[in-house]
Specification:
Layout: H1 2-35, E1 39-40, E2 52-53, E3 60-66, H2 71-89, E4 94-100, H3 105-121, H4 126-136, H5 148-158, H6 164-172, H7 177-189, E5 197-200, E6 203-204, H8 211-222
Helix pairs in contact: 3-4, 3-6, 4-5
Bound molecules: calcium ion.
Length: 223
Amino acid sequence: MNKKKGSRSFVVYTAIVVALIVALFAVNQLQEKKENTDKTLSEAPSIEGQPVIGEENAPVTVVEFGDFKCPSCKAWGDVNWPQLKKDFVDTGKVKFAHVNVLFHGEESRMASLASETILQLHPDQYWTFHKALYDAQPANHDDSWVTEESMLAIAKSAIPELDEQKFMDTMKAEATVNAVNYDISLVNKFNVQLTPTIMVNDTMVANPMDYASVKAAIESELK
Ligand code: CA
């Protein structure tokens, strides 16, 4: 009798432990799901003064917070951008803007200054230079590659009509430092922690590397 009672309480005990483990697992899953969900913020980032591609009156604005030194940003540009452009920018549904993020120190800063310089001197050529910068990122992204000389060389090959002297003067004088500092203030304001960060209007996309997630966020805004 006693023995039977003991084995029954063992069964009950085991069942409770199993139930607890299942419950913990479920809570964990829920938490993970929550972290992987797009976040709607109180506002969308302003794109004033930023490079913008797409129709001015497009109903949805997508902002990329990107760093020219970041390999994921390069990958995003190579893989997701062409699809986004084809599906939404070329069809007039989305206008796209880029904000500089300086997570990789002095080289990020110099690449940001160079891109803001091109935006100021040759605004029509901004996106050509933008792509040329990412194309120049070496396979080992930790390798040092952003210098005044490399910025000039990339700008020269991307933009045949480049005013070289003006480009170097503007770079050396850091004449676009206010634009770079403004971008840093946006990064802080929107608490950008990772690059690339993609915002679709006021929604921060949880998985920006997954094109389907970006697409779903845009389609939800278009409804
Ligand atoms: Ca900017």
